[in-house]
User: What shape does this take?
Amino acid sequence: MKIAIIAIYHPESSLCLAKSIAINKCEVDYYYITDIIRDKNKVSGFEYLTASRKPGIVTLSTEVIPELTADSIGLPIKYHLLRLFPFSKKFYWVNKLIIKYSIRKIKENHYDAINIIGHHPLVRDIHNYLKDENIIHTLHEVGNHWSKQSEHSPLIETLINDKTKVILPSISTFNRYVSLIGFTEGCAAIIPVGKHETYKLYEKDLNFNLCIKSNNIFLFYGFIKPYKGLALLAKSVDILLKSKRDFHLIIAGGGADPNLSYFEKLPNATVINRFLSNNELISLNKLCSCVVCPYKSASQSGIVLTSFLYGKPIIATKVGAFVDTIIEGVNGLLVKPDSPEDFAKAMEMLILDNILLTNLSKGAFTFGHGDEYDWDIIAKKTIDFFSKK
Assistant: This one.
């Protein structure tokens, strides 16, 4: 079977999928859509530092991606970029022309299936150019999970109208999708995502030189937005401080939230308010004892699938896909949303109980081995869905 994967965003998961499908004896071409101007030649779990910046399809050589090439020796897989201009209305028409030409070249390869991963206005154009192919979309989001609005995008309307096969990675996103008006039964499947293993290809020694005096280190990381619950975390930390518990908190990631100023003033907190390199993200995971996700809402979170890679348990609120991947008392702790008291109690449990922390860490390490989040099992389910008529 000859398969193309076209991904816009989510390389840390789609690259793992591409490799796993290739391991299952399918020929794979991986295309990552990226910005020709703003892109720094490195994104989450994927670095191509010396790649050409010409528009259109750029095939990546061994010299450009030595880590990926070494990781897939002997596998029938090739890696490409699909370079566009910035994703803005100003460049919409030139990008549309690049996409049209690039898709024409992709179609010349006569793939048995084409998996389009990501949700972006340009994806609808890609879909329309590939209508006569066996295309399957993977959607990590369906609408705005942080909003009560039921609106969905023109892309999703197109997928429903065309009765396109769609993969959803979590129960929550699947349920939102199948509830949409016009959905045709049998056109969607729940196929989860495994650990973001490509991060391990970029591990290097790194010393942050952080002033940390505690062994109990909690980490909040990722793109910072208000729905990710820093307000709740601030209240939880305040409770722990009043109880005089020994811990250090690291807040790391680009983005904005009015609660950052609270953490910046704390002597036992470190705020790194910028986007993290792959190696910085790896190093912070290795440094911490536990990751905290006090989100107000969530769909599929890459934080879980990255942190479990390093055996880091997670304290999270019971929202979205957290309830799918985090098993209470096995690889993390789940608390009800909007309860700083419960969140503080969960943090306190790991501060005081080293045996519990050790057991949860073991559970995080074993996640994705022989279960539904195992990449080999995911690949087989994906191939079967690609073949479905």
In short: The two ends are 15 Å apart (CA to CA). The mean pLDDT is 93. The chain has two domains: 2-194+371-387, 204-366. The CA atoms of residues 113 and 134 lie 5 Å apart.
